[in-house]
Amino acid sequence: ELAGMFLEDSPRMLAEIRTALDRRDGPAVKHTAHTLKGSTGVFKVQSAFDAALRMEHLGRDCDWDHAEAVWLELTHEIAGLSRTLRAMLA
Predict the structure, then answer these.
(1) Measuring CA to CA, which residue among 22, 6, 5 is closest to residue 64?
(2) 16, 27, 51, 53: which could form a disulfide with 74 (CB 3.0–4.6 Å)?
(3) Handedness of CA 3, 5, 7, 9 (dihedral sign)
């Protein structure tokens, strides 16, 4: 059930983070990344959790110089976790 919820909610959260990054809205990046971090933590995939944590810190610090690199890492890690979860559900 949690895997299904993650697969349903994570694309929306990523879209919210992308929009917040584009607007340079640090609090929104921080909030949504924090929520995504919690969702990834359930599955004990440290690399995805760490990427979400880095995005959360980026939003907190408004560190726009590193935004694209952290975004690429986060999307890569969430895509990998999503593939794994879809395979488990199949």
Answers:
(1) 22
(2) 51
(3) negative
pTM exceeding the 0.90 threshold for the entire prediction: yes
- Distant-in-sequence, close-in-space partners of 19: CB < 8 Å, separation ≥ 6: 28
Alpha helices (runs of H) in 25-66, residue ranges in sequence order: 26-41, 46-61
For residues 60 and 10, what is the distance between their CA atoms, to the nearest angstrom? Answer: 20
Pair of tokens at residue 39: 């969702």
C-alpha to C-alpha distance for 80 and 90, rounded to whole angstroms: 16
- For residues 90 and 4, the answer to whether their CB atoms sit within 8 Å is no
User: Which one, of 13, 19, 31, 28, lies nearest residue 77 by Cα?
Assistant: 13
- Taking the C-alpha atoms of residue 18 and residue 61, their distance in angstroms, rounded to an integer, is 16
Query: Tell me: the pLDDT tens digits for 45-58?
Result: 999 999 999 999 99
d(CA 16, CA 32): 7
